[in-house]
Each structure stands twice: as structure tokens, then as C-alpha cells.
Amino acid sequence: MRTPVYSALAGGLASLAVSGAAAAKPAGMPQLDFHSFAPQLVWLAIAFVALYLVMSKLAVPAISDTLAKRQAKIQADLDAAEKANEDTRALVAAYEKRLADAREESRGLQRQQGEADSAVATARLAELGEKLNGRIAEAEKRIAGQRDTVMAGLEQMAGEIAQNVYAKLAGQPADGAALGAKVASAVKGTRR
Q1: Cα three-residue angle 174-178-183, rounded to 5 degrees
Q2: In contact, 13 and 50? CB cutoff 8 Å
Q3: What gap in Å lies between CA 15 and CA 8, rounded to an integer?
Q4: Alpha-carbon distance 185 to 192, whole Å?
Q5: I want to staple 166 with a disulfide (CB 3.0 to 4.6 A). Which of 38, 77, 159, 174 is the partner?
């Protein structure tokens, strides 16, 4: 198919060269010569048809093929990008769901641990309270015993001091039993 087009083009150019050399006139521009308008229009039509055939058979199909391939590649890239975008969105949604589940599980574990720690702390606090109450009771008993011992010693000491004071003031020894009873009743009155 290319051979007839090229041969027609070559034949046209050769006849143009021959006619141009034979009809060469030394005066003026040949494009403006009214006698050569008809052959120029014929050659214009032949050149146009030849260029049209070359472009329609060779250049235009190659260009349209390249454009079609380019469009197909662009569309394939856009489709791949859209699929990757959808996959990414699905992965992000799955990640967020797993993250929310993990947070909820963490909160549940914290609640359980808090309740367990609270129960252990309550039990230890109750045990410690019982221990402290026992120690306080023992300390109160010890203090009461020591107070009774001190008060008994104070009673005896107060009786001796009272006898010495009475003996110095009155100049004679005091009756120990009567003075001891008065000191004992005074000490008992201060205990209340």
C-alpha cells in the first residue's frame, strides 16, 4: 500500500520538475503568472491528496494508537489507585476497630484489676483494723493497770505525806488509820 503512494508522489514531483524546467521564463514570479494558475492548482490538489493519504495511512493511526495506549495506561493507573485507596480505607477502618476493641478490653481489665485491688485493700484494711483494735485494747489494759498501780502508790505516798505534814504542823504524830481513810476517799473522789 505504501509503494503506490510513494510512486505516485515521486511521479508527481518528477513531472513538476520537468514542466518547471521547460516552462521556465526569465521574467517575474511563477506563482503570479496567470497562465500557470491551472497547473499550479492541479499540483496543489495532487500534493494535498498525497499528504492526506500519507497522514491518514501512516501518521494518524500511529498517533491514535499512541493516544489509545496512553489513555488505557492512565485508566489502569486510576483504577489501581482507586483500588489501593479502597484497600487503605478498609485497613484503616479495621485498624480503628481493633484499636477501639483493645481500648475497651483495657478498660475492662483496669476495672477488674481495680475491683480486685479494692477487695484486697479492703481485706487488708479490715485485718489491719482488727490488729490495731487488739493492740489498742491491750494498751488500754496496760495503761489501766499502770494507772491503778500508780494511783495505789500515790495513795500510799499521799498518806505518808499527810502524816508528815500533820506531825510537823500539830507537833504530834497523827492517827494513821483515820488519816489513811480520808486520803483514800479524796483519791477516789479525784478518780471519778
Answers
A1: 95
A2: no
A3: 11
A4: 11
A5: 174
